[in-house]
Amino acid sequence: MDKKVAELLNDQINKEFYSAYLYLDMANFYSNKGLDGFANWYEIQAKEEQDHAMLIYQYLHNNNEKVTLEAIAKPDKTFTTLLDPLTAGLAHEQYVTSLINTIYAAAQEVKDFRTTQFLDWFIKEQGEEEKNSSDQITKMELFGDDARSLYMLNEELKGRVYSAPSLVL
Ligand code: FEO
């Protein structure tokens, strides 16, 4: 595998684990506010991010590339309002999309089509994650100020269940 592509993929493992940590911090914030549905949603999101990291880890191993695990940064966002984690989540997903796009472009440049095909799943996943994040912002902006609606929103988010990623390596 091209050295730069392998390095970018290796870095992405760390970024995905950081994402998991960031989402766990959001779950932590909502849990402290008594919003267990929101906390549930972000706990599952954190699990999905670990899955993303492990898919890239496995992909590198499957291609005989060495993986180097680096330190995971401390979640650095400060949340005050109930909307804050949601807006931070969307900004973070947009950032992750840009990272995936960079890896994709690097792979395409060296005609590493196995990697672009592998990343196709992540490109689609990023689209879904950005949509979920922006839908949540819309709902919170519409209903978050009303206690009864917030209760129902929290109940709705309690229903999210974890499922393993659809991508099999
Ligand atoms: Fe792994 Fe939320 O992107």
Low-confidence stretches: none
Mean pLDDT: 97
What is the CATH class designation? Mainly Alpha
Distance between termini? 17 Å
Number of domains: 1
CATH topology descriptor = Ferritin
SSE ordering: HHHHH
Write out the distinct hetero groups bound to the structure.
MU-OXO-diiron
- Helicity level: over 70%
What does the radius of gyration come to? 17 Å
CATH architecture: Up-down Bundle
Net shape: elongated
Q: Largest sheet, if any?
A: none
Quote the beta fraction: under 5%
Structure, explained:
The structure is a single chain. The chain is mainly α. It has one domain: Ferritin, core subunit, four-helix bundle (Ferritin, Up-down Bundle). The chain contains five helices and no strands. It starts with a helix and ends in an 11-residue tail after the last helix. The mean pLDDT is 97. Bound molecules: MU-OXO-diiron. The site of MU-OXO-diiron has 7 residues, from helix 1, helix 2 and helix 3.
Task: Provide keyphrases for this structure.
single chain; 75% helix; 5 helices; elongated; Ferritin; 169 residues; mainly alpha; binds MU-OXO-diiron
A few lines on this structure:
This protein has a single domain (3-158), classed as Ferritin (Up-down Bundle), CATH 1.20.1260.
How do the strands and helices of this protein lay out in sequence?
Blueprint: H1 3-32, H2 36-62, H3 84-109, H4 113-143, H5 147-158
Helix pairs in contact: 1-2, 1-3, 2-5, 3-4
The structure holds MU-OXO-diiron.
